[in-house]
Specification:
Layout: H1 2-24, E1 60-66, E2 71-77, H2 81-84, E3 88-90, E4 102-106, E5 124-128, E6 132-144, E7 159-166, E8 176-189
Parallel strand pairs: 2-3, 4-7
Antiparallel strand pairs: 1-2, 1-5, 3-4, 5-6, 6-8, 7-8
Length: 208
Amino acid sequence: MLLCVGAATAAWCAAAWLETQYTQRLAVPSSLAARRLPGDAGARSPRGTSGRMGIELGTVIARLDAPAVQLSTAVLEGSDDAILNRGAGHIEDTALPGERGNIAIAGHRDTIFRPVRRMRAGDVLNLSTSDRVYHYRISNTLVVGPDDVYVLNPTRQPTLTLVTCYPFDFIGHAPKRFIVQAQLIGQDRLDGQDGRDRQDRLDGRAGR
């Protein structure tokens, strides 16, 4: 009996790992209102499509890279548990990659977003879509409660907001959320034309 349970558990873990690896290798396709911040327990999103442009939940919409902490992950549409088990999730009803405003992305503190705990002000974040790479610089980090959804509010300045649970080593469902806020500093077109405001190459932690 124990052997059967062990075999079933191992098979489930292997299937979950394979699904995550498959998701992380997906390319970004060329086309494409939160009441509580996503967390360990994450309320399940309705099946079907997100309210933003009818994008199907679970679709890869971008790729997030943070060179200074060796984070690289696919960003999927939606932020329920099933999606966050596969990669980072774009929080519904916030700006989409490439749009002006506040783009919010969530991830689990003990898997995809484990490196977030090492992020510091000044670090560079790169958000890639099918045709552009948007470069952000972290301006600050803060800890809030799960109901402090003001961090998802629209912004005049193009902003990238990362959300994960806190404390990082808490056992069980963590009671708070760790927030990373970053501002757009430039962009590159993937056809080779440089669209950034700065001429220097931004490949990691500035001044470190």
